[in-house]
Amino acid sequence: MESTAARSRPRDGGGGTDGSTEQTTTGKDTGTTKRRTGGKTTASGAAGRAKSTGAARKGAAKKTASGRAGSRGTAAKSGNTDAPGHHDEFGGPDMVQLLTPEGERVEHPDYAIDLDADELRGLYRDMVLTRRFDAEATSLQRQGELGLWPSLLGQEAAQIGSARALRDDDYVFPTYREHGVAWCRGVDPAQLLGMFRGVNNGGWDPNGNNFHLYTIVIGSQTLHATGYAMGVAKDGAESAVVAYFGDGASSQGDVAEAFTYSAVYNAPVIFFCQNNQWAISEPTEKQTRVPLYQRAAGYGFPGVRVDGNDVLAVLAVTRAAVERARTGGGPMLVEAFTYRMGAHTTSDDPTRYRSDDERLAWESRDPLLRLRTHLEREGLMDADALAAVEEESDALGRRVREAIRTMPDPDTMAIFENVYADGHALVDEERAQFAAYLASFEDTHGEGN
């Protein structure tokens, strides 16, 4: 049977167009590397840095990880990496892992996966290109081209692994950070840029890709997904629905209601929680007394924690969850235990609330470096293959920058439209005041000349 990863490979926004190579500099809070015309680093960004300082970083990882895990009450000894169900101190003994941070393949008694070389290389390509697009978007925001950008840096494995587990007829309800999932569902990256530039409201047809528009309101998409899944069940369709959300959203009442309804109606929905450890500046341990995946038991359906930086484990767990949903098993909660390497958004400064030691510890678990190490060790990807991915990454970077250049500026007065059907005197007054404010800049510019 053809694998999902291979079947869905053409559904991406990849490829490049002609364009000049430019310097692209990312803000320091993204954790990505600067890319220059001469002697540029790889598109894998933080993966390259982690590889160059691996020995020192492993020491920081062991020290910081054990401290954080211990504070959550989930620390455990690593044990033999060849043993079934191997885990490390980051995620606790119940965390599903198939590829260690060192790139070693391990087995799990409940979740197995068997991918060929092309599929493994495809997963690596997806993660590299997604990271490159994300870095370019962050840089474009710093240059004033976007109003805001929420980076996914560090969460590539959670997004690519889960998205490649889906079929075309499955339906996805994202938050606002699922750029990797959008890539896998065939959404053009330029459409994401248009939304954060303020020139469209999403730009893509949700039914064309079975990928809903981004949801900014925290947690509400879980209710949308649950309702859609209930409809799918009533229609008799053999498809699954996936709702993405973060650890912060798990504290929202909408999520609790979605859990309740999905359990009662046995809806074919997977709640995919990317636990990146921080709800903006609030750490996970201040949001919950138990690991997030254990919350599912209180609602009557299973939950599982997976290493969110292990693309193979995420793929295996999500495949099992969607297959369970398609065959009448009902909802399931998947907690992808990962880390937000950059800022919450480009308006955030994570150095104000978390330490460099913590970031370095997680950087040593970089999802791209992990898979790349495995591919190189097994002889599945040589220097030429890696260079080809880098070339494709550069082409994507050029295409993204060109897309921004051809976009119009946002309509600054559009915010006042469609507030009231028949207009309103106060809105008219505010519109006039704002127009006068904008005009004052033009007058100042004219005087300067």
Write a structural description:
With 449 residues, this protein is of the alpha/beta class. The chain has two domains: 4-405, Rossmann fold; 417-448. 44% of the residues lie in helices and 7% in strands. It is built from 16 helices and seven strands. The strands form two sheets. The chain has a five-stranded parallel sheet with strand order 1-2-3-7-6, sandwiched between helices. Strands 4-5 form a two-stranded antiparallel ribbon. Helix 2 (46-52) crosses helix 14 (367-377), helix 4 (117-142) crosses helix 5 (156-163) and helix 9 packs parallel to helix 10 (253-264). The longest helix is centred in the N-terminal third of the chain and has 26 residues, at 117-142. The radius of gyration is 22 Å and the shape is globular. The N and C termini lie far apart (69 Å). Mean pLDDT is 84; it is low at 1-88.
Strand-residue proportion? 5-15%
Q: Structural class per helix/strand content? A: alpha/beta
The secondary-structure element order is: HHHHHEHHHHEHEEEHEHEHHHH
Low-confidence stretches: 1-88
| Spatial order of the strands forming the largest sheet | 1-2-3-7-6
Task: Tell the overall outline.
Answer: globular
- C-alpha termini separation: 69 Å
Based on the coordinates given, report the CATH architecture of the largest domain: 3-Layer(aba) Sandwich
Domains (count): 2
Separate helix tally: 16
Can you give the helix content as a percent range?
Answer: 40-55%
CATH class of the largest domain: Alpha Beta
Radius of gyration: 22 Å
Assigned CATH superfamily of the largest domain: Thiamin diphosphate (ThDP)-binding fold, Pyr/PP domains
- For this entry, what is the oligomeric state of its chains? single chain
- CATH topology-level name of the largest domain: Rossmann fold
